[in-house]
Amino acid sequence: MSEHAPNSEFVQSLERGLAVIKAFGPDRPEMTISEVAVATGTTRATARRFLLTLEHLGHVRSDGRKFSLTPHVLGLGYAYLSSLNWWKIAQAAMEDVVHELEESCSASVLDGKDVIYVARVSATRIMSINLSIGTRLPAHVTSLGRVLLSHQPPEMLDACLAEIEPRKFTEWTKTDPFELREAIETARMKGYALVDQELETGLRSLAVPIYDRNGRILAALNVGTHAARTRLDEMTGRFLPVLHEASRKITAQIPG
Predict the structure, then answer these.
(1) Which residue has the higher pLDDT, 88 or 6?
(2) Contact partners, residue 46, CB within 8 Å, separation at least 6
(3) Cα–Cα–Cα angle for 147, 151, 153, nearest 5°?
(4) Would you say 140 and 149 are in contact if contact means Cβ atoms under 8 Å apart?
(5) Is the per-residue pLDDT at 92 higher than 80?
(6) What is the Cα–Cα distance from 39 to 149, expressed in whole angstroms?
(7) Which terminus of the chain, N or C, has less C-beta within 10 A?
(8) Cβ contacts of residue 171 below 8 Å, gap of 6+?
C-alpha cells in the first residue's frame, strides 16, 4: 500500500480494500484473517472488517475460517476490458494471426513495471507459464513490455529501470539497466521487439505496437514460438509482416 497519501482527497480505506482483493492469487487462493493481515500489512481487526465487508458485497466467501474470492470480483476487471473499444476488434485480427502463423497471439497493456494480458488467442501450448487474460509479467523481459516501454516518457522509463529486480529467469535474461535501455531504444527505432529466451528457455517472442487513430500507443501485440521450431530470421522475415498487418487493421477499425 502507499506510504504517503497523494493528497487530501485520497481515500485510504479504498486502497486497503483493494489491497485485500489483490492479496489473493495462485499462491494464496484461500487465507485466514491473520494471513490476510500479514499479506496486506494491516492489523487483524482491520483485515477482518474489510473481509466481512467484501463478503457482504459478494466479492469473497468464507467457510468459517478461511476466505476466498468469488466470481463476482471478475466484474471489476471486466469493467476495464469492456471500456477498451479496440478489444473486440483486436480479437478478430489476432485470430487471423493465429490462423496464418499457427502460433499463439496476445495483446497487453503496461501497468507500472509489468505487462497485463488483456486479450489472447491460443494455438499450441509452448510455455509452462499459464498465460490468460489478467496474467501479469515483468515488462523488461517480454517483447510486449519492451514495445510498451519504448513509447513511455523518459522519466517513466528511468523509474521503471531503477526498480527492476536483477532476476535471471534464464541464462539469457538481460538484467543490466544499460543493456535493457539499449534493447528498449532498439524497439523504439525498429518498431518491434524480439526477445529470445529471456523469460523462459526455448521461448522466442516478437511484438509490435497497437496505435489509436491519433498515433498514441494503446497496447502491444505479440506472437510467441519455440526456439527449436522457428529461427530468429524467420520471425522477422515471416512473422513480423503478419503482426504489422494485424496492428494496422486494428488501428484502421478503431473509431476516430
Answers:
(1) 88
(2) 16, 37
(3) 140
(4) yes
(5) yes
(6) 29
(7) C
(8) 201
- Same domain (yes/no): 181, 228: yes
| C-alpha to C-alpha distances, 54 to 28, 46, 59, 61, 79, nearest whole angstrom | 17, 12, 5, 8, 18
Q: Are residues 146 and 178 in the same domain?
A: yes
The rounded distance, in Å, linking the Cα atoms of 97 and 84 is 20
Q: Which of 115, 118, 156, 160 is nearest to 138 (CA)?
A: 115
Residues 240, 160 share a domain: yes
pLDDT digits (tens, 9 = 90+) for 118-129: 888 988 655 555
Which positions ≥6 away from 101 have C-beta within 8 Å? 123, 223, 238, 239, 242
pLDDT of residue 151: 95
- Site of grid cell 476490458: 81
- pLDDT band per the 50, 70, 90 thresholds, residue 243: very high
38 and 139 share one domain:
no
> What domain range includes position 95?
84-253
pLDDT (0 to 100) of residue 165: 82
CATH number, domain with residue 136: 3.30.450.40
pLDDT of residue 220: 96
The letter for the amino acid at 204 is R
Q: Do 47 and 136 belong to one domain?
A: no
Contact 230, 81 (CB under 8 A): no
Q: Which residues have CB under 8 Å from 197's CB, separation 6+?
A: 170, 172, 203, 204, 227
**Residue 134's closest CA among 108, 116, 115, 111?**
116
pTM for the model stands at 0.72
Share of the chain above pLDDT 90, in %: 56
- Cell numbers given for 162: 531503477
**Is 78 within the bounds of a domain?**
no
- HSE-CB at 95 with a 13 A cutoff on CA atoms is 5
